Each structure stands twice: as structure tokens, then as C-alpha cells.
């Protein structure tokens, strides 16, 4: 019984961890702006911030009570705040990517070049735009309405969230299958043990 409770507790903690992962924050900022990235949970002691580069995690800075330890910061643009948040000054387009706090995914950052319009993210309320119809023609000649000005394409930020939600659902289903399999195996072993005990008792009699 104790072993079964430990297994259920581990599976529950795993599922809850996946649920937190599915709620990753996404942020879009302009080049040369500053931003602070916070850990998903409250942390104490040393905190190591890393980012994903070419599919690999690379440590950036370690926030230590005695002072910051820089690992990969030639421009000295990264620093830590009092709550162990990562502060990025003069953000560059190359800073785009996923950032991790103690190997836990904290935020997905997108840095766009200066002069480009920042598209709305999932956490902001999109503004409603209205178009004014062209005035009626004043002469007999019919002129086509003016073409709308080209707009900056919006970044689709909903796709990663839907993908993460699908992954979470698959993980939950696999966890349930594992729990059922463990329960069946445990029940079978208990039945076999009970049969052996009954046979030994009959033989003794």
C-alpha cells in the first residue's frame, strides 16, 4: 500500500509539473529595450539562468547572494535583481529564444528589430481597428478606392500554446495508463502471493 501511494504521488507531481509548463509566458519587445524575466516559482539561494541556443541550454548568469557569476555574457548585458529575476538591458534580436530558471522554462522572448511594429501578444487585449469608407466620387469618372497601407504581419503566438496543451493532454493520458498498469500488476502479485500461502498451509495440514 505504501509503495502504491508513493507511485501515485510521483505521478501526480509529474502531471502538475506538466501543467505549469503549459502556461509559459510569451513576451515580445522591441530591440534595445530592457526587460526582466521572473522565475515561475519563488526561489532561494543560488539561481542559474540559461537560454536555449541551437537546441542546447547555455548558462548565462548565476544569481548568488555574494554576487552575480557570469558564464556567457561578453557584453555584460545580463544581471540579476533582488528577487533573482533576470534583467536584460539593450535587448538584441539575437536574444530571441527560451529562457530557463534553474532548468525550468520561464519565458519565451521575441525581440523584433527597431522600426517594426510590436504585434499584440496573448496577454494583451487586441485593439479594434475601423476603416473609413472612401468618399463618394465628385465626378462622373469612377475611381477605385485607395489600397490600404501594408501592415506588419502579426506573429501567431497561439500555436505554441495549443501545441503545449496537446502535449499536456498526451502526458496525462500516458500517466493514467501507467497508473492502471501498476495497479493491475500489484493486484496480480498479491493474488499469486495469496495462492502460494494457501497452498503452503494446505501442505502443512
How is this structure best described in words?
This protein has 205 residues and is an alpha+beta fold. The chain has one domain: Immunoglobulin-like, CATH 2.60.40.10. Helix content is 33%, strand content 22%. It has helices spanning 2-21, 158-204; strands at 25-30, 35-37, 47-53, 56-63, 69-70, 78-80, 86-88, 97-101, 104-112. The longest helix has 47 residues, at 158-204. It is flat. The two termini are 31 Å apart.
Shape: flat
Unreliable residue runs: 18-22, 122-129
- CA distance, first residue to last residue: 31 Å
- Estimate nothing, just give the exact number of structural domains: 1
CATH class: Mainly Beta
Number of helices: 2
Given helix and strand content, the structural type is: alpha+beta
| CATH homology group | Immunoglobulins
Q: Report the radius of gyration as a whole number of Å.
A: 28 Å
**Number of distinct beta strands:** 9
Largest sheet: number of strands, sense, barrel closure: 6 strands, mixed
Order of strands side by side in the largest beta sheet? 1-9-8-3-4-5
Amino acid at each position: 500500500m505504501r509503495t502504491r501511494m508513493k507511485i501515485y504521488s510521483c505521478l501526480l507531481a509529474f502531471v502538475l509539473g506538466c501543467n505549469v509548463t503549459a502556461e509559459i509566458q510569451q513576451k515580445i519587445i522591441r530591440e534595445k529595450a530592457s526587460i526582466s524575466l521572473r522565475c515561475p516559482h519563488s526561489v532561494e539561494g543560488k539561481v542559474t539562468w540559461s537560454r536555449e541556443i541551437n537546441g542546447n541550454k547555455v548558462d548565462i548568469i548565476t544569481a548568488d547572494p555574494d554576487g552575480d557569476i557570469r558564464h556567457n555574457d561578453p557584453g555584460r548585458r545580463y544581471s540579476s535583481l533582488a528577487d533573482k529575476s533576470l534583467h536584460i538591458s539593450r535587448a538584441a534580436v539575437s536574444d530571441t529564444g527560451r529562457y530557463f530558471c534553474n532548468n525550468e522554462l520561464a519565458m519565451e522572448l521575441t525581440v523584433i528589430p527597431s522600426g517594426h511594429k510590436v504585434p499584440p501578444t496573448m496577454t494583451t487585449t487586441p485593439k479594434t481597428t475601423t476603416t473609413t469608407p472612401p468618399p463618394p466620387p465628385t465626378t462622373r469618372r469612377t475611381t477605385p478606392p485607395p489600397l490600404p497601407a501594408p501592415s506588419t504581419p502579426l506573429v501567431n503566438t497561439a500555436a505554441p500554446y495549443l501545441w503545449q496543451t496537446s502535449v499536456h493532454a498526451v502526458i496525462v493520458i500516458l500517466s493514467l495508463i501507467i497508473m492502471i498498469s501498476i495497479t493491475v500488476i500489484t493486484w496480480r502479485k498479491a493474488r499469486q502471493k495469496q495462492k502460494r500461502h494457501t497452498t503452503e498451509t494446505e501442505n502443512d495440514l
